[in-house]
């Protein structure tokens, strides 16, 4: 009763009920892949909750402290305040190790969910108009997630994080002319500076999270405004969304997923050890530890630094050190390509239409081949980040392992990208529904089509980019309705007939909309749909009623005339 009165009081003053009612009625697709973004969102919520707890006990300072605590090997040792507070939080604060490890696992899953979510968006073409801005926001969130993960990883001031920070400082200083100045300004002095840890702390807990909250809010607002994309299927068109309403069905599933994410994160934090800084020891500039690797989301950068040869060049008398190319150029080109991809594809294909239906990877073999090749390249860089572990495991000199990885990182992406291109083209052009159903004939046919000079990224509407096989028993019917055109999908075998609720101006626009909604289905032009039975009945009754009324009026007029004829001529006027 109290909550009901409060809700009514707020609604009387703010008039929120129409907005809330419309939001709760919003429809979301039921496909499992749309939950990847929610996993990232709920991991971020876990990061915020556990991070607030950790800030109560962490001391972001480089000042000297003498550690006195439960971890005996470090008792009485002088370390930085940041490292001492991290060890104390892990060993002496109740629940501190659980929260700290859960926070670390949440950061790993947060970045992983964003990456997998972007991969899904890339291979399904969900970044196309009108969702280019969503893609840009997502790539920016990935960049900030990487930056925030690295700053949090570097704050404890242990030996491993200190070495990683020193590597990043070296990469930054490799930028010609301005690199050393940028690093000096960012750290507040020469590395390692007294301002280094406080600035990492402010960046990690305040600046980047605030921007992430703003971007997540903007991303969700754009999804609500533009509606969700969806996979093609029966009843799904460019102008509707088939799925579950936000309340109650989708909300219950989403809350259940939130509970599962928290359960998995806390289970990992309590059962799986990660980043035991007390074993590594405090950071000392003259010391190093091996074998050790950073977290997976920056391991590709470490692998690139290990694989790149020690080449140094001079430009206009200025030295360009070797770390500049794998550290600055590779990372810059990667994210620049991510930002530019929607516009590059639109320029190559000429496709400027709005897309609300997603593609299957087989529908665009070129995009699929490029994506698989790039993923293979970065996977090999991640493997190269553990070259010392591989050398120890297989008992091969590390320089031989490096040479083999240098060859594989260049050759494997070409092989996997080409194979993915051929498989996608074979699936698109053949009769196989799944990858395991492909035959040698399908692969040979795909190879012959690839060698005929067919354009890789054709213009919009070109035949190579459309699914080839037609489905018997299915068709799309187009007809003029006055000065407009309408269309509907019909499946005679399933007894399905779905009418589009959109009227367009030309036959071509109707054909384009039907081709996007139901690729691979032939369309035919018909005079128009037959009227519904109840409409025919009403029309017939109206006609019969009008005819009966006309007959009745004619009969009444004839009876009136007959009466006048029976009365005879009237007497003439009397003389005056």
Explain this structure to me?
There is one protein chain. With 576 residues, the chain is an alpha+beta fold. The chain has helices spanning 2-14, 17-24, 36-55, 81-91, 96-124, 132-154, 159-173, 179-187, 196-226, 246-271, 277-280, 296-307, 324-349, 365-384, 387-394, 398-429, 440-450, 507-517, 533-567; strands spanning 27-28, 64-66, 78-80, 244-245, 313-315, 318-320, 474-481, 484-491, 496-499, 523-525. The strands form four sheets. It has a four-stranded mixed beta sheet, covered by helices on one side. A two-stranded antiparallel sheet has the order 1-4. A two-stranded antiparallel sheet has the order 2-3. The longest helix has 35 residues, at 533-567. It is elongated and about 135 Å long.
């Amino acid at each position: 009763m109290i909550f009901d009165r409060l809700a009514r009081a707020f609604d009387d003053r703010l008039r929120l009920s129409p907005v809330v009612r419309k939001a709760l009625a919003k429809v979301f697709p039921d496909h499992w892949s749309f939950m990847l973004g929610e996993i990232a969102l709920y991991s971020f919520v876990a990061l915020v909750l556990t991070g607030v707890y950790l800030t109560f006990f962490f001391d972001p300072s480089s000042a000297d402290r003498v550690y006195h605590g439960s971890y005996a090997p470090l008792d009485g040792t002088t370390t930085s305040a940041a490292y001492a507070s991290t060890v104390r939080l892990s060993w002496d604060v109740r629940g501190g190790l659980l929260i700290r490890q859960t926070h670390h696992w949440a950061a790993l899953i947060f970045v992983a969910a964003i990456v997998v979510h972007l991969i899904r968006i890339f291979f399904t073409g969900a970044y196309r108009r009108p969702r280019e801005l969503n893609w840009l926001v997502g790539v920016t969130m990935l960049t900030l997630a990487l930056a925030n993960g690295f700053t949090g990883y570097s704050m404890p001031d242990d030996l491993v994080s200190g070495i990683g920070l020193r590597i990043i400082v070296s990469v930054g200083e490799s930028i010609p002319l301005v690199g050393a100045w940028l690093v000096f300004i960012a750290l507040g002095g020469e590395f390692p500076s007294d301002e280094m840890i406080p600035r990492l702390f402010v960046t990690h807990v305040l600046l980047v999270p605030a921007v992430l909250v703003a971007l997540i809010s903007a991303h969700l607002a754009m999804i609500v405004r533009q509606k969700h994309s969806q996979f093609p299927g029966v009843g799904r068109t460019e102008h509707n969304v088939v799925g579950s309403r936000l309340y109650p069905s989708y909300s219950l599933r989403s809350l259940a997923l939130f509970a599962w994410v928290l359960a998995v994160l806390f289970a990992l934090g309590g059962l799986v050890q990660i980043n035991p800084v007390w074993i590594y020891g405090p950071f000392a500039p003259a010391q190093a530890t091996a074998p050790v690797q950073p977290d997976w989301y920056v391991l590709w950068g470490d692998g690139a630094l290990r694989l790149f040869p020690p080449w140094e060049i001079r430009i206009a008398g200025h030295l360009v050190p070797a770390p500049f190319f794998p550290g600055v150029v590779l990372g810059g080109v990667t994210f620049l390509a991510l930002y530019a991809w929607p516009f590059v594809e639109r320029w190559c294909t000429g496709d400027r239409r709005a897309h609300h239906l997603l593609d299957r990877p087989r529908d665009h073999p070129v995009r699929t081949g490029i994506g698989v090749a790039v993923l293979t390249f970065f996977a090999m860089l991640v493997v190269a980040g553990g070259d010392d572990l591989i050398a120890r495991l297989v008992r091969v000199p590390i320089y031989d392992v490096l040479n083999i990885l240098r060859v594989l990182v260049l050759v494997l992406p070409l092989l996997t990208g080409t194979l993915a291109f051929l498989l996608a083209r074979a699936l698109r052009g053949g009769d196989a529904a799944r990858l395991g159903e492909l035959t040698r004939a399908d692969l040979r046919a795909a190879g012959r089509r690839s060698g005929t000079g067919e354009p890789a990224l054709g213009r919009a509407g070109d035949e190579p980019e459309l699914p080839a096989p037609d489905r018997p028993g299915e068709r799309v019917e187009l007809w003029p309705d006055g000065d407009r055109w309408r269309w509907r999908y019909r499946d005679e075998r399933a007894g399905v007939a779905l009418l589009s609720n959109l009227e367009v101006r030309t036959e071509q626009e109707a054909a384009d909309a039907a081709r996007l909604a139901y690729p691979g289905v032939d369309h035919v032009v018909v005079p128009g749909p037959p009227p519904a039975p109840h409409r025919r009945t009403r029309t017939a009754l109206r006609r019969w009623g009008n005819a009966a009324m006309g007959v009745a009026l004619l009969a009444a007029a004839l009876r009136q005339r007959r009466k006048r004829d029976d009365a005879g001529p009237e007497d003439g006027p009397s003389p005056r």
